[in-house]
Every structure is written in C-alpha cells, then in structure tokens.
Predict the structure.
Amino acid sequence: MEKMKIKIDNRVVEVEEGTTILEAARKIDIDIPTLCYMNLGDMGIEHKPGGCRICVVEVEGRRNLAPSCATDCHDGMEVKTHSIRVLNARRTVMELMLSDHPFECLTCAKSGNCDLQSMAIKFGIREVPYEGEKSTYKPDTSPSILRDMDKCIMCRRCEKMCNEVQTVGVLSGINRGFESVVAPAFERNLDHSECTYCGQCVAVCPTAALTEVDHTNQVLRALADPTKTVVVQTAPAVRAALGEEFGMEPGTLVTGKMVAALKQLEFDYVFDTDFAADLTIMEEGAEILGRLGKFLSGDKSVKLPVLTSCCPGWVNFFEYHFSDMLDIPSTARSPQQMFGAIAKTYFAEKIKKDRKDMVVVSIMPCVAKKYECTREEFATDNNPDVDFSISTRELANLIKRANIDFNKLPDEEFDGPMGESTGASVIFGTTGGVIEAATRSAYEMHTGKKLEKVDFDQLRGMEGIREATVDFDGFPLKIGIAHGLGNARKLLEDIRAGKSEFHAIEIMACPGGCIGGGGQPLHHGNSAILKARQKAIYQEDAGKPIRKSHENPSIIKLYEDFLGEPMSEKAHHLLHTRYFGRARQIVIETDVKEE
Amino acid sequence: MSAIKIKLRENDLKQLKEVCESFNNDPGELINVLHKAQGIFGYLPAEVQEVVAQELKVPVAKVYGVVTFYSFFTMVPRGKYPISVCTGTACYVRGAEKVLDEFKRILKVPVGETTSDGKFSIAGLRCVGACGLAPVVLVGDKTYGRVAPDGVKEILKEYEDK
C-alpha cells in the first residue's frame, strides 16, 4: 500500500492510499462534524453516502468544497477543516436541513439524544433564515416501530442497515428530489412488509424518524392499578447497558441498581429473564441432544443443524425468507415467552392469582420483543403471556420520570423464585452466549462428566460468522454462530444448499447480539460501546456462583414441582412453539377471463 | 403479518418470467427488465414489480424505489395514446407549459393520469433531443413540432375516430 503525506489544518499526517480525508483527520484527533456518516468498525459496517454535506472541507486547488467522508486523500493534499468558507457552508447546510424539519424538540422522543439537535447546538444555530415547503408524510405505526418521516433527514443509515447489513430489504429510498423518502415497497406500512422488527434502523436513526413504540404509559397504568399484580422480568443485556443512560461508562454493570429501581417503581415482583434463559437451555439443550442422538443413530427423519430460536427478529426473518426450512429451528420459545408462560401458570398458582389479574412486563434490549408478545400463539383466552415489553431506553425513561436518582441506588437482589439465575443465562445477552450456555449443559448431560472449564473461548468474539468444534468426549460437535441477519442468511443458504456441516447454530438478529439490540441505549456509531457491554456480560457470568443452567436450584424445583422433565407434555405445551411460513406467494388469478 | 399473496394472470406471469429470463435474471438488469415489462403491460402495477423482484432476487422495495425514481416508469395505466409534452429548457422557454395546460384543460386530467375512457394520458417529459422543433409533443410514437396552444385541438382531432 502506498503511503502519502497530506496536510490538514497545517498539520502533516501520513496515510495509506484509499484513506478518506475524514479518516486522516480523525487519526490526528481533528474533529470534522458528520451527520449521515456512520462507522461501526468492529462490525465491518461503514456508511459514507456523502449525502448530508455537513462534513465538507476546503481542499487547496479544488473549486468546490469536498465531503471529507467520501473524498480520498492524495499525496500533497492541503485541507482546511474550519475556514470561514467551510463554516459558512456547514451552517447553510444545517439551516436548510432545519427549514424542512418539525420544531418539536421539546416534546420529541429523541430530544437530548438526537444527532441533528446536537449538531444544531454545536453550530450555535439560533434562527433558521429559510422558509419554504415542508415535506409531510403519513405516520406509520406497527407493533414495534414508529415511522415519522417528517423528521427524516435522508441520511439513509436505516436503508444501509435494512438492506446491506440485515438483508431484510424492507426500506428503500423512493421518489426523487424533495419528494424522496425512505419507505417500504408501495409505501405500505411496516406491518404490511417483511419487516422483522429487528430495530437496527431505529438503533442508527439520527433523529426521531424511526423510534420504538412507547409502552411506558401502559406500564405506569398497570402499576397504578391496585387490582393487578405486576411482575417484571429483565433481559440479560439490559444490565450491561442501562447505566449508559445515567452517564455511566459503557460496560458498567448495574444489575443491583436496576433491581432497586424496579422495586422503587413498585413492581410487585422483580424477576429475571435470566431464570427463563436457564429454562430455555434445559429445553433447547434436551432438544439438541435428542435430535443429535437420533441423527447419529441413522434416523433419516431428523434434520440438523438445530438452530437457536430465542431471537424474535430472527424468527420473523426465517418465517419470511426461509419458510421451506421451518423444521430446522429449535421449537423452544424465547426466554421472554417462557417467562410469561411460567409466570401466568406456575407462579400464578403459587401466589393464588388468576392470570387475568396479573400483568407481566418485560424489559428488553429489543424492539422485536414488542411484536413477539402480540403473537397469537403466546396468549391464552386472549390474555397474553407477556403483556408489555419495554426497551432499555424506555426503562431509563421511566426511572427518570419517577425522579429516582439511579446512580445513588443501593444494590438489591431479585425476588425468588423466578429471579434466580446462573452465569450461563447471563451470556444470552451477547453473540455466542446462547450456544455456550447450551454447550455447558449439553456436555454434562451427554457425557455424564463434569466440565473442567466452563468458559468456551472458541465460541466468543465479534466476527460476524464464527465456527468452532467442541469435543463431546470423543464426538466433535460442530457449532456455528452468526449475528446480524445478513450473516445468518449466509449460513441458512449453505444449509439450503446442503453444504452445512454444523450440528447446531446460534443466530442473533442484531450485530453483537442483544447487547447491540434495537432497544438499547444509542451507540451513536461507536462500536467500542458494544465491546464494553460484551465484556461486562462475561464479567457478570464469571462472578456467578453457579454457571450452568441445569444447576439452577429454582429451575430444578420448577421441574420437580410442575413441569416434570424437559420436553415433557407440559413443557411442550408451555415452553415450545411452532413457526409459520410467511413467504410472499405469487398465485395465478383464475377468475379473470383471458381476453 | 401473514404471507402476502400476489395475484397475476397465468399468461402475464409467463410473459414476465420470460422477460426476466431474457436478461438472465440478473439484478443488474433491473432497469432494462422494467423497461421491457412496461412495454408489454403499458405500466408497472405492484404485482408486476413483485414478480420482477422475486425473479431477480432483489427486494421489492428496491424495485419500487427504481420505478418511482425514473419518470419514464409509471404505475398507472397509460392511455391508448400517451401524450408527452416536452418541458425541457428549449421547449419550456418557447411555451411548452401553455401547451401542456391546454391538453390538461381539454382532456380534463392532470399530468400523470389517464382519461376515463382510457384513450389519452398526459405526461411531462424532459427533452427529447429535438430542440430545433420546440415545443415538441409526442403522441405515442408520433412527433409534433412547434406546437402552439391553439394547435392542441387539431392534434387531438387526429385521434378522434381511432
């Protein structure tokens, strides 16, 4: 690679060929403001459409200003990043953008967390001198995601995530000029598209054009209702990110404070989704071993690999795009839904309540979970197993609204019995975690031996697709891992083509797994945050006295008192599900006569 | 959401699949495929876009994005005699706007729509490369040059009995 020298603001920097001006400037800590640009380096996701023109700089000898995110350096280049000409141009660009943006900042869902707002503050914008037509677009609401395209600045980050990273292909730029907007095909609403509700569009939207559907008011209403017993469950990845909403360093674990806050919010029982994650391992582990055993004994009716099924975005994805392979994923419900089913049966019996008088709330790093709890198969007599699912961000909002000083809260413990969990369940929050948890238990169940070392380092990491072979006492168990739906698609296509040699595959829809979920505190394009959260998850696991799901005493008791054994009839009824093929179908219209 | 069902007549589906196949179902040929498809059907209804998307293995949102980006593509059926008035710079300065207005006034439909009898549709168009003849009007494949507003009636008359 050829080296070249360029001068930025009179400072010399040596870069390799193909480096952009923006990258060169960041190398020597010169800050060039960006808006549409996004770089999630660790995930291999880079978006530089050069569309917003906020990052323009002056290049000696060039007539017009250059967008630094999309302009390569050349040897001897001289760049000015904050000349008067540059500053004026950036200000004009901002003013024009704001002239077509609703001024609802005080009541906007993204206020205080909006990249456009931050930029307006940075530029010291005090008035918008331009007045003209404003683009208006119909609002679109779905079970998980709200679209308010009046607030869209056409950065097209969502399009990048939806098409290139997730390969879902629901969002596309349509129309042209002032009319252009990002929308699903035929401008139908999201709930009439193949949207998986993974929420990665929401996670990268710089404004409030894409947000989660807010369920905080429903939760508050339930809490205020004296006739309801309100039970809350918290997903593993929430505790590794919630602190960020209160100014803590990324990667700060706030499990105890989170429990304390939920108790102050007056939830009747503060439980842990981790408990249900342990339960998932019992069921999924038994299923993997069962299918594997049959396969190895030559039973041709059994298909491998077994795919994990904890992630609702992923479930939606395969129902839409791989409906010919519905018999491959595990039938185990997600931990959220296992929790709901057990809370409204086993636990309801214990506290002598009718399910109708109970409200189950889940705190999830996810927006697809909102959709998941509305699925008909997860309700009994129209009463859903999980009533409301709120995101990590929404929980932070509830805590702030209640004026709870989160940072000063003491650490408190989850309630029993559905608050007891193991280290295996905590790592559900990161890519590689579910399969590692399953491996810990499956190994011991299969071999009858005790694991010397419960850490399976070969399953950990951030690469989009990983594979590892685990020695099951002489049998090499081949494991695949994918996070991000685009990576999942690759593994799925291999299976379809009969080229896959895996016995089990873990798939999570979001890059990084749940730590990078669509409901997490916004990372604003900083992928180091996801790594810090991942580290925190493994730290929580390492600190747990019990680290294998099948050793969770509350889980053992649940099977003794209620379920019998994994895959029992009762377990099947409450903890397993089925999938629906939802691929687009082209049908021949026969009622129209040919001319 | 349950599965979306796309209804098409058997013959239309067959023709469309043949078009896609003639371009080797190559996603890079999306625009050419759409061009051909519009030639067959006269317009590109949602069903046609769905089939093209499926055959070329591109998201239907992307296909819709392309169809709505290029003014050449239309999702509403065009008339038997599609009228295009060039509003490129040369035609515009020589009064194309007034010619366009006259078509709209007489046919009582706005730009982009089709008369209720399905006979005429009106579209604006940017430069047909015959600036010497400005303002230019196309009706189907036939070109009319130096059209003045009061010549519009005469042009339409030609198609009266057809």
About this structure: DSSP finds 18 helices and 23 strands in chain A. The two ends of chain A are 65 Å apart (CA to CA). Residues 216-575 of chain A form a domain with the Rossmann fold fold (CATH 3.40.50.1780). Chain A touches chain B at residues 163, 168-176, 183-186, 191-194, 323, 580-590, 592, 594 (CB under 8 Å).
